[in-house]
Amino acid sequence: MKDSDPDSIVRFENVGLRYGLGPEVLQDITFDLEPAAFRFLLGESGAGKSSLLKLLYMALRPTRGQISLFGRNVAGMSRTELPRLRRRVGVVFQEFRLLDHLSAFDNVALPMRVAGTRESDVRRHVEELLSWVGLKDHLNSRPPTLSGGQQQRIAIARAVITRPKLLLADEPTGNVDDKMGLRLMHLFEELNKLGTTVIVATHNLGIVRQLAHPVMRLEAGRLNTDEAQIISALGLDEPGIGAGRAAPGPVLPRIH
Amino acid sequence: MFRRRSDLPMNEDTLGRFLPWLIAFMVFLSALALAGMLVLNDAVRRWDTGLNATVTVQVPPGSGPREDEQRLGQVLAVLAAKPGVERYETLSRDRLFELLKPWIGEAGQAQDLPIPMLIDVTVDRGAQLDAEGLAKELQARVPGVSVDDHRVWLSQLVRLVTVIQALAWAVLGLIGLATIGTVVFTTRTGLAVHREAIEVLHLIGAQDAYIARQFAARALALGLKGGFLGLALAAPTLAGIGYLALETGASMVPKPEFGMLKAIGFLTLPVAVAFLAMVTARSTVMRNLKRMT
Question: CA distances (Å), B138 to each of A19, B69, B90, in order?
């Protein structure tokens, strides 16, 4: 298949996904995201948000339809090409997926090391980012010794350390308080301003109201991109919760 | 030996505990096989230089010393005129008694014991002496003379040793295959145990080669550890066998010599096995990862 529009970061065309011989969990998903877009992905539990994200970070292949990332058709891509593409995608997994035997520092350093970054640069950037997410005193702590919120911040730091072109976050604020949640979302916004396309799957309508970015909603495996209808249905036009401005984000490295 | 950072928790898996012991066992067996081959090689070389150019002429005793002397003189005259005979030497009666002593003891000293006379003949290697023709020629002069051509039984012995050496090579080959099988099994198990971490590494952009390198480095480290352990266990065993061989005083077994080349040969064993483990681990990971997402 031919590669698609190089200006598009994400393009889904009639994508369907089923697990084994089960029913389709995602049906006819079609959407397009330009560079530096920011979208909240909403939906009830089981609506298919995590499945959609898995397609985006190439952990799954669609059973039908076509997915293009950074203008490249994923289906036509060889196994050796995938890692290079994946390095341009940062992922915050819902269950964090940290490597328990590694320290917080080494977990965050992983994407840089995988990309072959010099160790001196790794140290500088990782320490700065961990300090920024409030884990300066836990550089050598292993994830099992940290709280859920601290683990989540490590997972976020790992996802953004290489300043990815596409950032996918599955419930990134689920285990932190509102203030830290907002602070982390501002980090995503900082990256977004630098050109990163961000998709945040969340149940936290307070954050959605506060940041006022476009939304899309999965409803029983189908994607609703009618923003007015979603805002009205979820009452997102009502006044949101207040929170203080977060500090500016750290300077992140650019990994190619 | 050296500390290498690993993104996978390989130090925590139980496989790392028994792989060095398996490799130690393989290297132990390899060292024994190699030592056997080297000893046989030395023996063949020694027999070859010592016996390949000699024949022994046996002259049956006559009715008395006078006839003995006459027979010996006729045989020596033939040998002296024979082209290809480089040197000949009649073994003295004392020397003969000495050779017979282990079998018949002091009884061999009896003067009336009919002992044949032996002539040790050194043959010119390039002359292609026909031992059968020589025997016929001597028998025409002195009936009952026999010529013992060492080259005949030596070539049979060399053939036997060559077969044993081939078997030793086959044993080394089988040990190599067993090592490969063990490493393939442990690596596959490692891949299954660390599947979750490997998936994370893939999702953040790790190439298969990046992951394979970590398994290969681990296999190399464990291989070297186990290999040198096996060699350390083989050293006293071989020393013990060497000591026993010397104690028996068996003349066919050459005195063990341990030069620099042989030392390098033995030291190469653990390194070779570790290298084999490393290459096997790498190729196993590469092959198996292709089946993962």
Answer: 96, 15, 15
